Amino acid sequence: MPELPEVETVRRVLGPLCAGRRIERVSVRRPEVIAHPGAEEFCARLAGREIAGLGRRGKFLSILLADGGRVTLHLRMTGCLLLAPADHPEERHTHVVFALDGGEELRFSDMRRFGRFWLLEAGEEDERSGAGKLGPEPFDPALTAGYLQSRFGARKKAVKECLMEQEAVAGIGNIYSDEILFAARIHPARAANTLSAEDYLATKGQEYRNTPYLQVYGHEGDPCPACGATLRRMVIGGRSSVFCPRCQGDEPC
DNA sequence: GGTGCCCTGTGG
DNA sequence: CCACAGGGCACC
Predict the structure, then answer these.
(1) Any catalytic annotation for residue A225?
(2) Is A29 in the active site?
(3) What is the pLDDT of residues A123-163, one digit of tens each?
(4) Which residues surround strand B, with CB < 7 Å?
(5) CA/C1' separation A115–C1 (Å)
(6) Between the CA of A62 and the C1' of B12, what is the distance in angstroms?
(7) Is the pTM of this model over 0.90?
(8) A246 a catalytic residue
(9) DSSP string covering chain A, please?
């Protein structure tokens, strides 16, 4: 489910609800989802600590602890974090449960079990999760056309794959890369080194209307919302991609 | 650069 | 039955 917008939604909804609460105990049913330290140590070290709030960087979430420590997690494909009364039946595929004071539980469920947790103490550098080497956030002022051009301008790789590199820009995944390239009228398979300065500026100044539904992703075969041509699907970098052959071009370059 | 893999579930 | 799913990584 989650790319940056979805992860940010989780943070905004659950953050205020978790802030100020104490973790009474932690239960891990699938030890493999705890990437660091071991599951036993993870539970032992967290018991009794207070949550200050939730943070996010790219697609990583962090449970920020009042003592400066943090639990960083990645939901990957199907991970889900939710708050529920302790007596509420547990969701299928629940792998980690944080029992909080006040009778509620913060639960992690994940059908495909790709999601991972890392526990870090105050001042400890995160060298494992990947959260430490993320590029700028999409709305970071440092993320300019010039930055993208300097980063991608010489790359032969498809522009879609470039946009999904977390070290280049944090938080963009398979869906939003398609949406971004549709808005910019750029073919997703186009080699990054063929883009002009104008391409990099294509959507600058345009209104980012809050279209509640996706424009192209998942709409293969439907008419393009801009021109009516039939949206097409192709595989780029092993990921399925949907685009408009008229707006974004029939051929990649 | 590609490919496969980690998993379970869903839909054709 | 097979193909595919919003992520990321290890491996030729």
Answers:
(1) no
(2) no
(3) 999 999 999 999 999 999 999 999 999 999 999 999 999 99
(4) A 32, 92-93, 111-114, 155-157, 237-238
(5) 29
(6) 39
(7) yes
(8) no
(9) --SHHHHHHHHHHHHHHHTT-BEEEEEES-GGGEEES-HHHHHHHHTTPBEEEEEEETTEEEEEETTS-EEEEE-TTTEEEEEEETTSPPPTTEEEEEEETTSEEEEEEETT---EEEEE-TT----SSSGGG----TT-TT--HHHHHHHHTT--SBHHHHHT-TTTSTT--HHHHHHHHHHTT--TTSBGGG--HHHHTTTTT------SS-SSTT-TTSBPTTT-PBPEEEEETTEEEEE-TTTS-SS--
